[in-house]
Design brief:
Protein name: Phosphatidylcholine transfer protein
Main location: cytoplasm
Number of helices: 5
InterPro entries: START-like_dom_sf, START_lipid-bd_dom, START_lipid_transfer
Number of strands: 10
CATH architecture: 2-Layer Sandwich
Radius of gyration: 17 Å
Pfam families: START
Helix content: 10-25%
Organism: Papio anubis (Olive baboon)
Shape: globular
């Protein structure tokens, strides 16, 4: 699932936009996991890995689309509230901006790290202003694997945000990663489901961003 050098295609951005208007849940066994506080989370079993893909739909009241997109892109702010971040920064590699992210895992498990491309576009879709952020794992020679840290090589995320017509934001998010190592898939899936229950207390944009950060983070 690694992305080759280069940027995301226009079609990938359009697909994320389309999910805002018409969620693509038909034709696959997407299961409703949580539905509360205006947020619905669905999951789909990936047969190859035994792990779940996630889709999130909903409305975040009193948070504008531009603010939500800006906060989502702000890595420095992320380090203030995400207790699992050990290291997080952007680096120019071969003419493109790559994100390096190391995630703390509890002892005795090894930390995981990610190297991924991330791109934001603010689109005008027939008069609808939509902010779209795409991210996917990649590999670059400047960021080699570290001893004692397991590199996550299957990571993909998309986020689309537009106005709800009032003061809030209508949101779509897709997420999948495979943390690798020797963690049983049932344990990863249980942890993801357990963390998603915190959506019952979701009241602001940080809650959604925290879920998008890594629903597989063990607590």
């Amino acid at each position: 699932m690694e992305l080759a050098a280069g940027s995301f295609s226009g079609e990938q951005f359009r697909e994320a936009c389309a999910e805002l208007q018409q969620p693509a849940l038909a034709g696959a066994d997407w299961q409703l996991l949580v539905e509360t506080s205006g947020i619905s989370i669905y999951r789909l079993l990936d047969q190859k890995t035994g792990l779940y893909e996630y889709k999130v739909f909903g409305v975040l009241e009193d948070c504008s689309p531009t603010l939500l997109a800006d906060v989502y892109m702000d890595l420095d702010y992320r380090k203030q509230w995400d207790q699992y971040v050990k290291e997080l920064y952007e680096q120019e590699c071969n003419g493109q901006t790559v994100v390096y992210w190391e995630v703390k895992y509890p002892f005795p498990m090894s930390n995981r790290d990610y190297v991924y491309l991330r791109q934001r576009r603010d689109l005008d879709m027939e008069g609808r202003k939509i902010h779209v952020v795409l991210a996917q794992s990649t590999s670059v020679p400047q960021l080699v694997e570290r001893s004692g840290v397991i590199r996550v090589k299957q990571y993909k995320q998309s986020l689309a945000i537009e106005s709800d017509g009032k003061k809030g934001s209508k949101v779509f998010m897709y997420y999948f990663d495979n943390p690798g190592g020797q963690i049983p898939s049932w344990l990863i899936n249980w942890a993801a489901k357990n963390q998603s229950r915190t959506k019952q207390e979701a009241q602001n944009q940080r809650d959604l961003i925290q879920f998008s950060a890594n629903p597989n983070t063990l607590q």
